[in-house]
Specification:
The chain is an alpha/beta fold and 386 residues long. The chain has helices at residues 2-22, 38-55, 75-87, 99-112, 140-153, 167-180, 201-209, 224-233, 252-255, 278-291, 297-315, 322-329, 380-385, and strands spanning 25-31, 58-59, 62-70, 93-96, 115-118, 133-135, 158-164, 186-193, 214-218, 242-244, 266-269, 333-336, 339-343, 350-362, 365-377.
């Protein structure tokens, strides 16, 4: 009788272990699918889903399940969603979105020790807010510093800065100004625009009145088309004033809607759909076949975020302990559709090439064509503090 009972218990435990092993490993994506930055969140989710489709939904013996939640571009909602994902859905890993939301969930993922991949936020401070955060997107300073360095070497002397009045815009402008200050170029005016529903026209008129060689612009992904339209309407292009700045302003998925007037616009960025590597050509072809539109820089943040998660899980043999995953992620290097990238072991920030690109028409379509490369660029904000 006792042997039968022991045997039954052993069988029950074995079945329970087997059932547990079959439970999915849940990855919670907290992204902006509605609201002002809805295109940003959708791109990240598209990128994550493409990676899973290409590489399968099983890694290190664990079946991957993406749990997608919409923060509606509202930090308070992101915080509530993070609590629900951690407590109710038992997610093992989180993919964070825009800066305000990422900053809001940082204390929660720290307390729960949940490995969190920042797939969107470009603010330097974001990953500093939690030892369980790592970034696969970019930092605003990476492109802004490179843009300043390139401009100083290529004849830009009088510049107006024109950025949104919020943390990412101010950070981008600050890094640009700091780098320009070490050159012969001069900032002749600095203008701040509201983030929500901006009317660029009065600011563009002030910029034109300053008679600069170039306007350094930072607007969030999605506002670039409106900005360029009003730039042309105010006649800045005919006055010989150039648009320069991070690549958000000529975002790949909006570029063809901007018209030929943007041909010649120079930007600095970490990704272009025209990046000439075979990996990127295959990546773009696969995405366009499935979605019928061009992938952009936000999408690659989600794609590479999933790559980092998969490779870390392989190193931990499927163990989702936050400390073990973070240790596996630090220092990781791989080839991305954007080029070679790595995770800085000290800062947990992405290290990547930044490309100088010019808008050109190729086969009847507009592309950001890369013509200069600044290799292995780290976050300049953190580098300046060392």
């Amino acid at each position: 009788m006792l042997r039968s009972l022991i045997g039954a218990l052993a069988l029950a435990m074995a079945l329970a272990d087997g059932a547990s092993a079959q439970e999915p490993l849940k990855i919670g994506l907290i992204q902006s699918l509605t609201g002002p930055f809805n295109t940003v969140g959708k791109a990240v989710v598209d990128g994550a889903q493409l990676y899973v489709k290409q590489h399968g939904d099983v890694v290190a013996g664990r079946r991957i399940e993406l749990v997608v939640r919409d923060d509606a571009t509202a930090p308070d909602r992101a915080k509530r969603i993070a609590q629900e994902l951690i407590v109710n859905d038992k997610v093992a890993i989180i993919g964070a979105g825009i800066t305000p939301s990422a900053l809001t969930i940082a204390p929660l993922v720290t307390e729960a020790k949940i490995a969190t991949v920042v797939m969107v936020s470009g603010a330097s401070i974001t990953v500093d807010r939690s030892p369980y955060m790592v970034r696969t997107s970019f930092t605003l300073g990476q492109s802004s510093a490179v843009m300043a360095d390139w401009l100083a070497r290529n004849g830009g002397r009088k510049i107006v800065t024109l950025v949104n009045d919020w943390a990412p815009g101010i950070e981008s402008e600050t890094v640009f100004k700091d780098r320009i200050a070490t050159s012969d170029a001069k900032i002749v005016d600095s203008l701040r625009m509201p983030l929500a529903n901006p009317d660029f026209a009065p600011f563009l008129q002030r910029a034109r009145d300053a008679k600069p060689d170039a306007v350094f612009i930072f607007v969030p992904s999605g506002q670039g088309g409106t900005f360029v339209k009003q730039f042309i309407e105010r006649g800045l292009d005919k006055a010989g004033i150039k648009i320069i700045g991070p690549g958000d302003v000529t975002d790949d998925d909006l570029l063809n809607g901007m018209g030929d007037q943007v041909i010649g616009t120079v930007t600095a960025h970490m990704y272009s759909a025209a990046h000439p590597s075979k990996m990127n050509k295959d990546y773009v072809a696969a995405f366009m076949k499935a979605n019928n539109f061009r992938p952009n820089f936000m999408l690659v943040g989600g794609y590479d975020g999933m790559h980092l998660i998969y490779e870390a899980l392989k190193k931990t043999n499927g163990d989702t302990d936050g400390d073990k995953l973070m240790a596996a992620m630090k220092g990781m290097k791989w080839e991305s559709p954007r080029g070679p990238i790595s995770i800085d072991a000290d800062t947990r920030d992405i290290v990547q090439n930044i490309y100088i690109r010019k808008v050109e028409k190729v086969d009847g379509k507009l592309y950001n064509q890369e013509f200069a490369t600044f290799e292995a660029v780290k976050d300049p904000v953190k580098a300046a503090k060392k």
